[in-house]
TrEMBL record:
Domain of life: Bacteria
Name the record gives this protein: DegT/DnrJ/EryC1/StrS family aminotransferase
InterPro entries assigned to the protein according to its UniProt record, in alphabetical order: DegT/StrS_aminotransferase, PyrdxlP-dep_Trfase, PyrdxlP-dep_Trfase_major, PyrdxlP-dep_Trfase_small
EC number: 2.6.1.-
Ranges where the record places region Disordered: 1-21
GO terms, molecular function: transaminase activity
Gene3D superfamilies attached to this UniProt entry: Aspartate Aminotransferase, domain 1, Type I PLP-dependent aspartate aminotransferase-like (Major domain)
EC class of the enzyme, as a word: transferase
Keywords: Aminotransferase, Pyridoxal phosphate, Transferase
Protein family per UniProt: Belongs to the DegT/DnrJ/EryC1 family.
Length: 401
């Protein structure tokens, strides 16, 4: 392990024209290794490798960071969504309005929780669900709306909240990407009944595998989620739903967080605010270089910040006319990219039975054809950002540098 951690980081040392990966955190791990190693040794000594004291310590630190009354550590952001929906009261057959432009787990979590996803289009100038589209999607079976905070900003929570109140809907947040984002001082995931965080390795706060958390200020939701993550147990027995006059047994599953993931996350949490600031610097450098180039439709810095919003750049997403051509050019130049997302959710084969057709949600469909994410992570150097920008400019202008 020591020799691997002391070796040069892929692509970021040596000064050559090595490949620029879409994501790389090897330098961060070398810097934090003494603390990570110390935490892992504590786990080994404790002998509890899942749902143990390190997870409890991480939950407390996340409560402190987010301001949440409750943080419930689980094994992935996806399971956190399923548990949140169930704990917030989703019933079999209930409809949940979700944006058509987001990662597929947003909608599949609704299915796994027993509900039916109903897709709504996104804003004209942004990637959050449109409050007007949410209002149009409400039916007699709608019980919840789940806005998603994507890439570098929050969804329009005030607009979605107005629609939800008008129709008596519960708001739950897919805030998987939104660690550090706040609205008027309230952390993402605490603007409705509850939210989630993903600690997938590429996230702003990433583990070394899958991990996630549910966060809420609601005592009953938190208690139910804690039971659901551990086979319905409260202590060593199957438990009843709290707050229900005729309780039924909770049929939970195995969604517990591993303590080794918590050990890594606790160490990385000490660098989170510095990493967020670094991402902001790099994203602005991208914006300054790419804004106004022919074929560039949008860069993150173009989007207006809502009053009271604290943004965090998780992904630097740009919209370009010839997205697929640019991706191929950058790949040939040794630069990694990621397409977010190649197909909107309402046109995914697994949701074909819901009857949506091409053209139904035009803004989401258009963004899926034009959006691409460029490398962005705290270990990335300004020189590498400039190299990416040089290649983007070369492709868009047809020139050579």
């Amino acid at each position: 392990m020591k020799s691997a951690l002391s070796s040069p980081a892929t692509g970021e040392r040596g000064g050559g024209r090595s490949r620029i990966p879409f994501f790389d955190q090897s330098e961060s791990f070398r810097r934090l290794w003494p603390e990570i190693e110390g935490n892992c040794v504590r786990v080994m000594g404790d002998g509890k490798f899942s749902h143990g004291s390190m997870v409890a310590e991480f939950e407390r630190e996340m409560e402190r960071y987010t301001g949440a009354r409750h943080v419930v550590g689980v094994n992935s952001g996806t399971d956190a969504l399923v548990l949140l929906l169930r704990a917030a009261g989703l019933r079999p057959g209930d409809e949940v309005i979700v944006p058509a432009y987001t990662f597929v787990a947003t909608a599949t979590a609704v299915v796994h929780a027993g509900g039916v996803p109903v897709f709504a289009d996104i804003e004209d100038h942004g990637y959050g669900v449109s409050p007007d589209a949410v209002a149009d999607a409400v039916t007699a079976r709608t019980r919840m709306v789940m806005p998603v905070h994507l890439f570098d900003r929050l969804a329009d929570m005030e607009g979605v909240g107005r629609v939800a109140r008008a129709h008596g809907l519960t708001v739950v947040e897919d805030s998987a990407e939104a660690i550090g984002m706040r609205l008027h001082g309230t952390h993402a995931g605490l603007l409705g009944a509850g939210g989630v965080l993903s600690f997938f390795p590429a996230k702003t706060l990433g583990a070394v595998g899958d991990a996630g958390a549910l966060l809420t200020d609601d005592d009953a939701i938190a208690e139910t989620a804690r039971m659901l993550r551990h086979h319905g147990r409260s202590g060593h027995t199957l438990a009843a739903f709290p707050g229900i006059s005729n309780p039924t047994v909770v049929t939970g599953g195995n969604s517990k967080m591993d303590d080794l993931q918590a050990a890594v996350l606790l160490a990385k949490l000490t660098r989170l605010d510095a990493d967020i600031r670094r991402r902001t610097v790099l994203s602005r450098r991208y914006d300054d270089r790419l804004r106004g180039l022919p074929g560039v439709r949008a860069v993150p810095g173009d989007a207006a910040t809502r009053s009271g919003e604290e943004r965090v750049v998780y992904v630097h997403l740009v919209e370009v006319d010839d997205r697929d051509g640019l991706v191929a050019h950058l790949d040939a130049a040794g630069i990694g990219t990621e397409v977010y997302y190649p197909r909107p959710l309402h046109l995914q084969p697994c949701f074909a039975h819901l009857g949506y057709r091409p053209g139904a949600l035009p803004r989401a469909e258009a963004v899926c054809r034009s959006a691409v994410a460029l490398p962005l992570y705290a270990d990335l150097s300004e020189e590498r950002v400039d190299r990416v920008c040089d290649e983007v400019e070369r492709f868009l202008t047809g020139g050579s540098r």
